[in-house]
Amino acid sequence: MKTVLIVDDEFDIADALSAIFEVEGYAVRLCSNGAECLKELAQGLPDLMLLDIMMPVMDGLELLRRIRGDARYSHLPVIMMSAVKPREANPGWQMFIQKPFNISALLQGVHKLIGSPTEAESA
């Protein structure tokens, strides 16, 4: 089973996303800020990270910078999410989705990046 790590300080959004991904068949892990996420990543690498930009303690852009600078996590697919669309794309993420988002479009993006929850990884 593939794992999605959701990093968002808004409990309602994280909880709703968690429920959606669990219904789809993904395992879900949750973090509420970037510092917490770094500790969580040390416990095991997920297949995909959904990352909010605006969070306390360490925002999503700083977390993304640290992840991309660490060889252990540099290949981790990241979907950034925020209510405010950034002025320019960031090469550190694979997809950006603006809140409130279309669940169907989000799931299509996830499937494109990592496949279905039980799909075997390519050799």
From TrEMBL:
Record-annotated Response regulatory domain positions: 3-114
InterPro entries recorded: Bact_response_regulator, CheY-like_superfamily, Sig_transdc_resp-reg_receiver
Modified residues (4-aspartylphosphate): 52
Keywords: DNA-binding, Phosphoprotein, Transcription, Transcription regulation, Two-component regulatory system
GO biological process, any: phosphorelay signal transduction system
Pfam families in alphabetical order: Response_reg (PF00072)
Superkingdom of this protein's organism: Bacteria
GO molecular-function terms, A-Z: DNA binding
Protein name: Response regulator
